C-alpha cells in the first residue's frame, strides 16, 4: 500500500497525520508513506523527525487583515495556488499513491485537489468542532470526511460523506507511562507542571508562566517544563530580567519546542496549555488535570468551545486569556495543588472522555475506501 499524507502549518494538523501514519506502519510494515507539507512549515522538521519521507511545496494562506504588506502576500498566494498545484501533481505522479489522506492546513488543498482530479481515492480528517477552510472546500469531493466531533458536519458541504472517528493520537502518547517517563526525565518526587502555548507558543502564556516559574523557584515546591514557542525567543531573557537563574534549578526546564511531549505529558501532574483539538485529545488519552487557556484568536472562538466541552464535564479548569495574569495563574495553580482530590478527579474525568481507537477506525476506513466499500 502507498499512502500520501498532506497537512500542516501547525502541529495540530501535522500530529494527527503522524498518528495515522505511525499506526498504519505498525499494522503494515511494508507500507510506503510520503508526506507533502508546506515549504517553511513546522512539518519540515516534525515529519522527518518521526521517520517519514517528506517533500514540500510552496504555498501560503490569504491574509484577512488589509495592509500593503498583506496585499503583496495575497498576490503571492494567488500565484502559489497555481504553482503549488503543479508541484503537487508532479509529486503525486512520481509517488503513485493508492490513497491520499489530508489533515487540514493550506497545504492539504492543492495536494488533495490534484489527487481527486487524478481519480486517486482521497479522504480528509477534521480535528475541530468548527472545520478549517481547507477541509470545508475539500469535503464536497472527498471519498470520506472523518470527524473528531459530530457537530462539525453542519458546517461542511451537504455532499460530504462524514464518518465519526475522533482525533487520532500518536501511539507514543497513548503508551507513555508515568513512572518510566519521570525516571527518564530525571525528575524527583515533587509535582511536575508542564506548560506550553499550543504548537507555536503564546506570548501571554509565556508572560504569566514566567511569574509562575519565579514563584516556583522561590518555594522549591514544583518541577516545571515550559515550551515557549517559535516566536518566544525573548522568554529566556525575561526570566533573567526577573532574576531567575535556571541553572540553579535543574528540574525547571524551558525549551522552544517540547520534542518529547509523550514523556513530558505522562510525567506531568498539571498541564497548563491552549485548547487546541489535538492537545485536548492527548490530555484525555493521558488522563491529565489541566488549566486551559483558549486562544481568543481562532475561527469562531473554537478553542473556547473545545475547552468548555471538558470544563462542563469537570475534566479541566479554564482560565480565559482576558483574566490571565501571573497572579491569577499562580493562584489557580496553588488552589489546585491544595486540593489533590480535585487534581485527581480532573484527570480521571479527562480520561473518561478519551477516544482511544481513532487510529483503528481511520485505518479501517482507509481499507474500506481502497476496497471500494
Ligand atoms: C492558533 C491555532 O490556529 N490553533 C489551532 C491549531 O493549534 P495547535 O497547532 O496548537 O494544535 P493542537 O493543540 O491541536 O496540537 C498541538 C500539538 O503540538 C504538540 N506540541 C505542542 C507544543 C510543544 O512544545 N510540543 C509539542 O509536541 C502537542 O502535543 C500537540 O500534539 O490546530 C488545532 C487543531 O486543528 C486547533 O484546534 C487550534 O485551534
UniProtKB/TrEMBL annotation:
UniProt keyword annotations, A-Z: Cell cycle, Cell division, Cell membrane, Cell shape, Cell wall biogenesis/degradation, Glycosyltransferase, Membrane, Peptidoglycan synthesis, Transferase
Entry keyword annotation includes Glycosyltransferase: yes
Catalytic activity: di-trans,octa-cis-undecaprenyl diphospho-N-acetyl-alpha-D-muramoyl-L-alanyl-D-glutamyl-meso-2,6-diaminopimeloyl-D-alanyl-D-alanine + UDP-N-acetyl-alpha-D-glucosamine = di-trans,octa-cis-undecaprenyl diphospho-[N-acetyl-alpha-D-glucosaminyl-(1->4)]-N-acetyl-alpha-D-muramoyl-L-alanyl-D-glutamyl-meso-2,6-diaminopimeloyl-D-alanyl-D-alanine + UDP + H(+)
Main location: membrane
Mode of membrane association: Peripheral membrane protein
Binding, UDP-N-acetyl-alpha-D-glucosamine: 10-12, 128, 170, 199, 258, 303
Pathway: Cell wall biogenesis; peptidoglycan biosynthesis
CDD domains, per the entry: GT28_MurG
GO MF term (any one): glycosyltransferase activity
Entries under InterPro entries matching the protein: GlcNAc_MurG, Glyco_trans_28_C, GlycoTrans_28_N
Domain of life: Bacteria
Annotated Glycosyltransferase family 28 N-terminal domain residues: 3-146
Domain Glycosyl transferase family 28 C-terminal: 193-358
Coiled-coil residue spans: none
Subcellular location: Cell membrane
Statement: the UniProt record of this protein carries the keyword Membrane: yes
The enzyme's E.C. designation: 2.4.1.227
UniProt family annotation: Belongs to the glycosyltransferase 28 family. MurG subfamily.
Role: Cell wall formation. Catalyzes the transfer of a GlcNAc subunit on undecaprenyl-pyrophosphoryl-MurNAc-pentapeptide (lipid intermediate I) to form undecaprenyl-pyrophosphoryl-MurNAc-(pentapeptide)GlcNAc (lipid intermediate II).
Name of this protein: UDP-N-acetylglucosamine--N-acetylmuramyl-(pentapeptide) pyrophosphoryl-undecaprenol N-acetylglucosamine transferase
Organism: Caproiciproducens galactitolivorans
Gene label: murG
Amino acid at each position: 500500500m502507498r499512502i500520501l499524507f498532506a497537512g500542516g502549518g501547525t502541529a495540530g494538523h501535522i500530529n494527527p497525520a503522524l498518528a495515522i501514519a505511525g499506526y498504519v506502519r505498525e499494522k503494515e510494515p511494508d507500507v510506503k508513506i510520503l508526506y507533502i507539507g508546506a515549504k517553511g512549515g513546522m512539518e519540515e522538521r516534525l515529519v522527518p523527525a518521526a521517520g517519514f519521507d517528506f517533500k514540500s511545496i510552496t504555498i501560503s494562506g490569504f491574509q484577512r487583515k488589509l495592509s500593503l504588506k498583506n496585499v503583496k502576500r495575497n498576490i503571492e498566494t494567488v500565484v502559489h495556488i497555481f504553482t503549488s498545484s503543479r508541484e503537487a501533481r508532479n509529486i503525486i505522479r512520481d509517488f503513485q499513491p493508492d490513497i491520499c489522506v489530508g489533515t487540514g492546513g493550506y497545504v492539504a488543498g492543492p495536494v488533495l485537489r490534484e489527487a481527486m482530479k487524478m481519480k486517486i481515492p482521497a479522504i480528509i480528517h477534521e480535528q475541530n468542532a468548527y472545520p478549517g477552510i481547507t477541509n470545508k472546500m475539500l469535503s464536497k469531493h472527498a471519498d470520506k470526511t472523518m470527524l473528531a466531533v459530530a457537530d462539525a458536519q453542519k458546517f461542511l458541504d451537504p455532499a460530504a460523506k462524514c464518518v465519526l472517528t475522533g482525533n487520532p493520537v500518536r501511539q507514543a502518547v497513548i503508551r507513555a507511562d508515568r513512572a518510566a517517563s519521570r525516571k527518564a526525565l530525571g525528575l524527583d518526587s515533587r509535582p511536575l507542571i508542564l506548560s506550553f502555548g499550543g504548537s507555536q507558543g503564546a506570548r501571554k502564556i509565556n508572560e504569566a508562566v514566567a511569574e509562575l516559574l519565579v514563584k516556583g523557584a522561590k518555594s522549591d515546591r514544583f518541577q516545571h517544563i515550559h515550551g515557549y514557542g517559535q516566536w518566544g525567543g525573548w522568554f529566556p531573557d525575561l526570566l533573567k530580567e526577573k532574576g531567575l537563574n535556571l541553572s540553579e534549578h535543574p528540574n525547571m526546564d524551558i525549551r522552544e519546542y517540547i520534542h518529547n511531549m509523550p514523556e513530558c505529558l505522562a510525567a506531568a501532574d498539571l498541564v497548563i496549555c491552549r485548547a487546541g483539538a489535538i492537545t485536548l485529545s492527548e490530555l484525555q488519552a493521558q488522563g491529565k488535570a489541566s488549566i486551559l487557556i483558549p486562544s481568543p484568536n481562532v475561527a469562531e472562538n473554537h478553542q473556547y468551545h473545545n475547552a468548555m466541552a471538558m470544563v462542563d464535564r469537570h475534566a479541566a479548569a479554564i482560565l480565559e486569556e482576558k483574566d490571565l495574569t501571573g497572579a491569577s495563574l499562580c493562584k489557580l495553580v496553588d488552589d489546585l495543588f491544595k486540593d489533590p482530590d480535585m487534581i485527581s478527579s480532573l484527570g480521571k474525568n479527562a480520561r473518561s472522555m478519551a477516544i482511544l481507537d481513532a487510529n483503528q477506525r481511520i485505518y479501517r476506513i482507509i481499507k474500506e475506501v481502497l476496497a471500494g466499500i
